[in-house]
């Protein structure tokens, strides 16, 4: 008989089929495609099928068609389920591939943890509400809470999820943003929880250690009523259900991830557990590699620093050997020359004392006495240079050091028209120095005449406290030379214009270096010379 519905028509219109919608116009002219996609679910077609079976003369194909239709609908549902499953697996594979690329290429522990923890808690990832990472400390034999991620209450969850939804960021962008802006704040937010998540690895009865030793994830349900779950752990987490996922890399226990749905209370499924288990292997490997890389960098820095110190020590040894050789040579020469020089000077002074003022030879004797005194001063410097190899240090007052040096040089400076001022710092601590050598250095810097032709014959001395010790500065405005000329004068025996010139400052530099005191000498042709010495306040500051 004729049917009032459209399933047996070759061509239909929009009004004929209530099952078709916008964008499906191609079905109007394709009866076969329309029957497969729409008619099996259409109430009108099912009514016609019932009528066919209930007619006075039943259609023998009606029961067969009903059976075929039932099987068709069942298989269609299975196919749709498989398609949905395959789509989810495709997304999961793509997701794991994206994470794997980052985890395999990164050796930065913070980056690895940011990606891993974001993947577990983000909706684009596994969608857990909260996650805690515990890492193994083999030296201490404990499992320590290291990082937590997720909201602590519903209000915070709504705010965070709203921001993520508005910004529409992918997983990698989320991880980068988390590392840049929230990594330290999340550590601080869960500080109280992480402190309590410290479990001895020897506690084999603890549920967390069981999961770690068993190398398999454990889904905990009814935590408050389970005897193998410590009540303190359940109370700390505040949830009845949570998942423990061990992180194992090459049979080494790296740590464990504890995840839960503390906000939505969504049930954790077996599929969640298997997905996280698959994800756990690359995470464990990446964490271990990043940790080893950090340790390698620390050891490399230590080796580099040790090599640098060894090189410095070798250079110091060579310099000390050279200086010791110079010291022995100069000391030997000085002692050999001193005795005949003293005899010559003694005779010359005796002759000068007994000669009359009108004696024409008196001028020659005075010259001998003056030159002898100068040579004796040079010998003293040479012997001091030799003695500078062995400084004797103790704690001294800086003001006492400066005032003693000013008293020793006052007569000479005043006779030459110099004005010297000292500005002491307030509350200066004692300094650890060789007083004799420092006094010599100050006197040398005050009296060493390198130019002396400038009209401004003023010297300013100041002292002040600093983090590195007490800084002592001497600003000599009367000497106007270039920096290269000053550097030249800091080399022993570099200047031979006058016997001994150039040795005084070089000797000062050698003495200060032996005591490990930072020394700077800066020359400016317009302002003069500034000497800066940093005096230590503790013994350990000596190099």
What oligomeric state best describes the polypeptide chains here?
A: single chain
| SSE order, one letter for each helix or strand | HHHHEEHHHHEHEHEEHHEHEEHEEHHEE
Give the helix/strand class.
alpha+beta
Count of β-strands? 13
| Overall geometric form | rod-shaped
Instruction: Domain count, please report it.
Output: 3
Query: Helix segment count?
Result: 16
Overall residue-averaged pLDDT value = 79
CATH-derived architecture of the largest domain:
2-Layer Sandwich
Radius of gyration: 46 Å
Beta content comes to: 5-15%
Describe the biggest sheet? 6 strands, antiparallel
CATH H-level name of the largest domain... which superfamily? GAF domain
What low-confidence regions span 5 or more consecutive residues with pLDDT below 50? 495-502
Physical arrangement of strands within the biggest beta sheet: 3-2-1-6-5-4
What is the CATH class name of the largest domain? Alpha Beta
Helix content: 40-55%
| Alpha-carbon distance between the two ends | 112 Å
Would you tell me which CATH topology of the largest domain applies?
Beta-Lactamase
Q: How would the blueprint of this fold be written?
A:
Layout: H1 31-37, H2 43-54, H3 61-105, H4 109-121, E1 130-137, E2 142-149, H5 154-167, H6 171-181, H7 183-189, H8 191-196, E3 199-200, H9 207-214, E4 218-220, H10 231-237, E5 242-249, E6 252-260, H11 270-354, H12 362-387, E7 394-396, H13 398-415, E8 419-423, E9 431-433, H14 435-447, E10 458-466, E11 469-476, H15 483-489, H16 503-514, E12 519-524, E13 528-535
Parallel strand pairs: 8-10
Antiparallel strand pairs: 1-2, 1-6, 2-3, 4-5, 5-6, 7-9, 10-11, 11-13, 12-13
Helix pairs in contact: 2-3, 3-11, 4-6, 4-11, 11-12, 12-16, 13-14, 14-16
């Amino acid at each position: 008989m004729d049917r009032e519905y459209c399933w047996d028509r070759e061509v239909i219109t929009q009004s004929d089929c209530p099952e078709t919608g916008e964008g499906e116009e191609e079905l109007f002219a394709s009866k076969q495609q329309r029957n497969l996609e729409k008619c099996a679910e259409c109430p009108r077609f099912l009514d016609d099928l019932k009528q066919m079976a209930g007619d006075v003369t039943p259609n023998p194909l009606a029961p067969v068609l009903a059976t075929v239709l039932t099987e068709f609908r069942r298989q269609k549902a299975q196919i749709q389920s498989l398609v949905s499953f395959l789509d989810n697996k495709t997304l999961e594979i793509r997701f794991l591939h994206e994470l794997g690329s980052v985890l395999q290429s990164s050796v930065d522990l913070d980056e690895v943890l940011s990606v891993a923890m974001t993947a577990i808690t983000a909706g684009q990832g596994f969608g857990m509400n909260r996650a805690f990472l515990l890492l193994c400390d083999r030296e201490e034999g404990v499992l320590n809470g290291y990082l937590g991620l997720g909201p602590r209450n519903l209000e915070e969850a709504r705010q965070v999820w709203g921001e993520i939804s508005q910004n529409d960021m992918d997983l990698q962008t989320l991880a980068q943003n988390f590392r840049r802006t929230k990594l330290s704040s999340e550590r601080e937010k869960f500080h109280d929880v992480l402190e309590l998540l410290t479990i001895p690895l020897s506690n084999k009865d603890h549920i967390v250690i069981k999961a770690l030793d068993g190398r398999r994830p454990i889904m905990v349900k009814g935590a408050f009523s389970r005897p193998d779950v410590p009540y303190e752990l359940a109370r700390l987490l505040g949830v009845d259900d949570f998942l423990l996922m061990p992180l194992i890399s090459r049979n080494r226990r790296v740590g464990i991830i504890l995840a839960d749905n503390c906000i939505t209370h969504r049930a954790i499924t077996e599929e969640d557990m298997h997905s996280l288990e698959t994800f756990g292997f690359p995470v464990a490997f990446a964490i271990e590699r990043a940790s080893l890389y950090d340790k390698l960098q620390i050891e490399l820095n230590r080796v580099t620093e040790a090599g640098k110190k060894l090189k410095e020590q070798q250079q110091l040894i060579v310099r000390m050997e050279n200086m010791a050789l110079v010291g022995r040579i100069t000391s030997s020469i000085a002692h050999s020359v001193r005795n005949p020089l003293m005899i010559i000077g003694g005779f010359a002074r005796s002759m000068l004392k007994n000669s009359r003022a009108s004696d024409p030879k008196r001028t020659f004797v005075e010259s001998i006495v003056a030159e002898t005194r100068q040579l004796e001063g040079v010998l003293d410097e040479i012997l001091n240079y030799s003695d500078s190899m062995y400084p004797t240090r103790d704690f001294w007052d800086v003001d006492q050091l400066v005032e003693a040096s000013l008293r020793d040089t006052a007569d000479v400076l005043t006779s030459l028209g110099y004005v010297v001022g000292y500005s002491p710092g307030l509350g200066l601590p004692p300094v650890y120095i060789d007083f004799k050598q420092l006094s010599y250095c100050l006197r040398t810097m005050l009296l060493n005449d390198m130019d002396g032709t400038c009209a401004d014959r003023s010297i300013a001395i100041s002292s002040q406290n600093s983090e590195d010790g007490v800084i002592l500065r001497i600003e000599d405005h009367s000497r106007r030379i270039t920096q290269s000329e000053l550097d030249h004068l800091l080399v022993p025996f570099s200047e031979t214009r006058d016997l001994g010139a150039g040795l005084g400052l070089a000797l000062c530099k050698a003495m200060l270096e032996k005591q490990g005191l930072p020394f700077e000498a800066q020359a400016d042709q317009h302002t003069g010379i500034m000497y800066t010495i940093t005096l230590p306040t503790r013994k350990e500051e000596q190099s």
